[in-house]
Amino acid sequence: MNLFELTALLAVSGLAIGFLGSLTGLGGGFIVVPLLVLGFGVDIRYAIGASLVTVIATSSGAAAAYVRDGYANIRIAMFLEVGTTLGALAGTSLALALPKQAIGVLFGIVLLHAAWLNLRKRSEGKTSGGGSAVAAYFGMDGAYPGAAGLVSYQAHRVPVCFGLMTVAGVLSGLLGIGSGIVKVLAMDQVMGLPFKVSTATSNFMIGVTAAAGAGVYFSRGYIDPGLAMPVVPGVLAGAFLGARLLPRVETRRLRVLFAAAIACAAGEMIYNGVAGKF
Amino acid sequence: MAMERTLGRLLRVGVLAAIALVLPGAVLYLAGHGWERADYHTFRGEPAELRRIVPVFWQALSLRGPGLIQLGVLLLISTPVARVASSAYAFARQGDRLYVAITLTVLGVLAYSLLASR
Description:
The structure holds two protein chains of two kinds.
Chain A: H1 3-24, H2 29-40, H3 44-69, H4 74-97, H5 100-119, H6 133-137, E1 142-146, E2 149-153, H7 158-175, H8 180-190, H9 195-219, H10 225-245, H11 252-274
Antiparallel strand pairs in A: 1-2
Helix pairs in contact in A: 1-2, 1-3, 1-10, 2-3, 2-11, 3-9, 3-10, 4-7, 4-9, 5-11, 7-8, 7-9, 8-9
Chain B: H1 2-33, H2 53-61, H3 65-93, H4 97-115
C-alpha cells in the first residue's frame, strides 16, 4: 500500500472514529490502536503515538462545542486531572519499560473489560440525598441546562473517584487511550453525576490526560507525521460533528454497537500478543 | 459561563490552527512521497528533527511537509495545556485560591511532560 492509499483510508476511518468517540464520550483511542495494528500492520508504538494525538483531537474538537453548552464541570475536571496526569506520566514510564507483546495483551484485556463495563445497564446519576463533605469543600456541586431550566446535581464519593482516575491516567499513558470509559463510569456511577455532565467532563479530561502522555511520546519519536496527517483532520471533523449532535441523540444503541466492535478488536489484540505476531 | 465561553473559543482557535498546519504539510508530504510504500511495520522512532520542539519549528519554517505536520501536532497537544492555563487565570480572577493551586499543579505536570525529556 502506498502513502496515498493509507492516507485516504485513515482519513475516512478517523472521521468515523471522531464522530463515535465524541458522541459516546468514550474518545477514539480504543479503536485507533487496534485499527492501526491489526488493520494496517503498524508497530504498536507508532499506533500508541497516533492514538494519543487522536484522543486529544477528539477531546478538543468536541469540547469546542460542549464547554459552551455548559455541561462540563470544570472544577471536578481540574481536581481529578491531578490524578489522571500524574497517572499518565507513570504509565508512559511503564510503557517504555515493557515489551510490546505485553502491551498488546494488556491492551486487549483492558479493552474487553471496557466493552463489558460499557454494556452493563447504567442508572442516571442520583441527584437526591446529601452531598459529600469533600465535594462541598472543593465546590464541586453544580447545575446543567435541562429541558425545563437548570438541573442541579451533587458529587459523591470523591476520594474513590480520584483513585479510579489515577488508574485511568496510568492506562492512558501506557496504552495511548483516553480511558474515557473509566472516566465516564467513575463519574456517573461513583460520583453520581448526570450522564451528560460526566460525558462532557470526561471529554474535557481525556484531552488533558492524553497531553501528559503525548508530550513524553512526542520526544521519544512515537508520533509519526505520516500517520498523524490523515488522522488529525479526520478525527477533528468527526468529533466536532458528533458533539453538535450530542444534545439531540439517544446514545444507548450506539454504545452497544461501539462496545461490540471494541470486544472483537480486543480478542484479536490478545491473540496476536500471545502468538507473538506484533 | 463567560469563562467556559472563552475556553471554547480558545480551543476552536487552537484546533483550527493545528489543521491549518497539518493540511498543507500533508499536501507537501504526499506530493513528495505519496507513491512510496507506506511501511510502519518496524518501529524506528522519529529522527531528532521531528521529535524535538525547536528543530520541528525550523523544519516547519522552511516549509517541509513532515515539519509542518509535527508542528500542527505539537499545537494540538498544547490545546489542552492552554485550556488548563486559562482555567488557572479564570480561577484567579474569581479569587478561588484553592482552585488556582489545583490548576497550577496540573499545569506543572503537563509542563514537565512536554519539556523535561528534552
